[in-house]
Amino acid sequence: MTVGPIALDAMGGDFAPLEVVKGAVRASRDFGIDVVLVGDESVLKAQLAGLGEKESERIRIRHAPEVVLMTDAPSVVIRGKRRSSIRVASNLVKRGEASGVVSAGNTGATMVAARFEFGLAQGVERPAIAQVFPNRKHGTVVLDLGANVDCKVGYLVQFGVMGSIYASIVFQKRRPKVGLLSIGSEDTKGNEFSRNVLRAMRDEPAINFVGNVEGRDVFKGDVDVVVCDGFVGNIVLKITEGVATMVVGMVQDALSSEVLSKAGAALVRPSFRRFKKQMDYAEYGGAILLGVNGVCVICHGGSKARAIRNALKRAHEFAVSGIVQQITEKIEASRTAS
User: Fold this and answer.
1) Is residue 167 located within the same domain as residue 204?
2) Which residue from 87, 150, 195, 304 has the least number of CB within 10 angstroms?
3) Cα dist. 9→91, 168, 204, 303 in Å?
4) Do 299 and 200 fall within a single domain?
5) Backbone angles phi, psi at 61, to 5 degrees
């Protein structure tokens, strides 16, 4: 499937615009992806020049004079900064001038811009943020990671459908296993809401539902998709990031301590580098906002060039896969069946 360029919010993120522009250049060079850099035109031209690059067919610039700050309210993209880089980038997707949008800027503003410009995919009640968590096998898709702190039963069922489609693309599995995050694997565990969701998900033919799963199951690799509301999901995400940082730091300290000889440390360092790479969010690029009528990848605010490069690759892959159309078809089939 032939797709257009990916619109990149070049002004969003802690290390924008330099690291964002670097990531765009690398994605274009390494993967042949066309990118539209959205932001202050004079600034972006200077950044490209500093990297020995210039505007071309592969990397174009679309001027956007305003920037949404991390401290801004998400609604500012509608009520205030209508010419902000994330709003303009999202509008390019709406107009068919780009096949997806990537941003490392204000997460709330990115979601609002995408939903305002794209709208929801047909039949979808609420969008959800999904991301691949590392495990000992291939990875686990977890959603929602913060788009919806209060949910209805039907929302989580749809999250299961959308997460299943996402997992089938990234893991190349025909029928990914879907679990519901709870405090125990037994059907009787959880509160009244989670038990109602459990029953509804068992009745959903569009997913390969395996029942309740616990927090530790996210990292075992026995289930492909874990569904939860955005309040719980965001806590899971932040705890995971914190633990990963701590573990990597502890291993680094151990390798540099006097306990290990230099020869012993040299032997284990290649394995540690592989482990560190597996735990690094930059490898996965970013999270995808599922359920909107377009491809939207949300990066960590601290993303540098490698993360941006990989996020652009993911956005391009999702556009090629027709993920929005797949979600629309599955949701419509589910609604018809019920």
Assistant:
1) yes
2) 150
3) 11, 28, 37, 12
4) no
5) -120, 135
Q: CA separation (Å) from 252 to 87, 241, 249, 260, 277?
A: 41, 17, 5, 12, 13
- 72: tokens are 């801004």
Q: Could you tell me what percent of the chain has a pLDDT over 90? A: 78
Q: What's the rounded Cα separation, in Å, for the pair 120 and 147?
A: 13
What b/e string do you get for 24-38 counting C-beta neighbours within 10 Å, with b at 16 or more?
A: bbbbbeeeebbbbbb
Residues 162-172 have pLDDT tens digits of 999 999 999 99
Q: Which DSSP symbol is given to 228?
A: -
Q: Are 191 and 183 in contact (CB under 8 A)?
A: no
User: Could you give the 3-state DSSP secondary structure of residue 211?
Assistant: strand
CATH of the domain at 301: 3.40.718.10
Tell me how many domains the chain contains.
Answer: 2
Digit-coded pLDDT (tens) for 243-299: 877 877 777 776 666 555 555 555 556 654 665 555 555 566 789 999 999 999 999
Query: Are 152 and 263 contained in the same domain?
Result: yes
Residues 6 or more apart in contact with residue 44 via CB below 8 angstroms: 10, 17, 21, 37, 61
Is there a single domain that holds both residue 214 and residue 256?
yes
Determine the residue type at 78: I
3-class DSSP assignment, residue 220: coil
Q: Rounded distance, CA 307 to CA 284, Å?
A: 7
- Residue 84: φ, ψ to 5°: -75, 160
